């Protein structure tokens, strides 16, 4: 499969083919996504919760994200790699935002960065895209980094004025230079209006079927994260319980000395050496 680039993404969008994005957090998850042929992998800061066990995404650092992004890049051959800029890394001023976007490319091997920001992030996005030449994905709707200010993990755009605000955010992000944007947890009708209004692809998660593409959190959709499952997630596999039963079987096999099996999982000495040794 040839390398997926921004041009590939634009082509899929132009042809009306839904774009498949999936999160990845390390080498094996990235390799699985890449082999499955997803168009874009996202090193989401959701890794704070699903890979590191944090309660939310607010404590994850640039160093944490870079560490995981590097591993993901080792497993990604074809898929286009987008990496989340974490909370606090782009909020203060443009120079800091650009500096951290550059670090994510140089150290994390990101091809694009994603910022959870609407209008208030426009000047930073403009600086990253047009100043540093780094492609940016926007993210509006339910923005987990600011879940506290939203009053929790809640669906956005349910009131008329809130839906209007989302449309304005989407337009601001497009004008700032985003090449794509994630629409998270909003009524399908709002996501459809935004998708029709824009001339860049929207990637939905809990935003209905009219968006230009979809993204899910890998751990949620394969059953490796059971603290809670959002309504918008579909379980495509149930690996968590399978992993538990594999380890349970292993433990029993160890206790019963059924594992390791002599002659199968073991090494022998050459016959002559063994003779002498005995
Ligand atoms: O962090 C993440 O996984 C994300 C996706 C849910 C879009 O931002
Ligand atoms: Na994220």
From TrEMBL:
Give its E.C. classification number: 2.1.2.11
Give me any GO biological process, just one. Answer: pantothenate biosynthetic process
Which molecular function term from Gene Ontology is one that the record holds? magnesium ion binding
The protein's annotated pathway = Cofactor biosynthesis; (R)-pantothenate biosynthesis; (R)-pantoate from 3-methyl-2-oxobutanoate: step 1/2
Tell me the keywords, alphabetical order.
Pantothenate biosynthesis, Transferase
Reactions catalysed, as given in the entry = (6R)-5,10-methylene-5,6,7,8-tetrahydrofolate + 3-methyl-2-oxobutanoate + H2O = 2-dehydropantoate + (6S)-5,6,7,8-tetrahydrofolate
Asked whether the UniProt record includes Iron-sulfur among its keywords, one would answer no
Query: Superkingdom of this entry's organism?
Result: Eukaryota
What top-tier enzyme class does this entry carry? Answer: transferase
GO cellular component, as recorded: mitochondrion
What family is this?
A: Belongs to the PanB family.
Q: What does this protein do?
A: Catalyzes the reversible reaction in which hydroxymethyl group from 5,10-methylenetetrahydrofolate is transferred onto alpha-ketoisovalerate to form ketopantoate.
Name of the protein this chain belongs to: 3-methyl-2-oxobutanoate hydroxymethyltransferase
Which organism does this record belong to?
Coemansia guatemalensis
The protein's gene is named: ECM31
Range covered out of full length:
34 to 311 of 350
């Amino acid at each position: 499969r040839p390398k997926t680039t921004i041009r590939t993404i634009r082509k899929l969008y132009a042809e009306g083919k839904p774009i498949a994005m999936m999160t990845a957090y390390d080498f094996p998850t990235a390799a699985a996504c890449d082999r499955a042929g997803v168009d874009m992998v996202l090193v989401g800061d959701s890794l704070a919760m699903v890979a590191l066990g944090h309660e939310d995404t607010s404590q994850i650092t640039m160093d944490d994200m870079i560490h995981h992004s590097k591993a993901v890049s080792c497993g990604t051959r074809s898929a286009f790699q987008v990496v989340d800029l974490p909370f606090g890394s782009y909020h203060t001023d443009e120079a800091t935002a650009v500096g951290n976007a550059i670090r994510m490319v140089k150290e994390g091997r990101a091809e694009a960065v994603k910022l959870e920001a609407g209008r208030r992030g426009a000047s930073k996005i403009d600086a990253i895209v047009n100043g540093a030449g780094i492609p940016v994905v926007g993210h509006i709707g339910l923005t987990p980094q600011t879940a506290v200010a939203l009053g929790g993990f809640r669906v956005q755009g349910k009131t008329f004025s809130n839906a209007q605000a989302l449309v304005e955010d989407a337009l601001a992000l497009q004008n700032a230079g985003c090449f794509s944007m994630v629409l998270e947890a909003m009524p399908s009708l709002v996501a459809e209006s935004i998708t029709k209004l824009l001339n860049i692809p929207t990637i939905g998660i809990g935003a209905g079927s009219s968006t230009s593409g979809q993204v899910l959190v890998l751990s949620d959709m394969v059953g490796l994260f059971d603290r809670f499952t959002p309504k918008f997630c579909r379980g495509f596999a149930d690996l968590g319980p399978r992993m538990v039963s594999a380890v349970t079987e292993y433990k029993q096999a160890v206790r019963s000395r059924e594992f390791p099996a002599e002659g199968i999982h073991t090494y022998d000495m050459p016959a002559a050496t063994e003779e002498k040794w005995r």
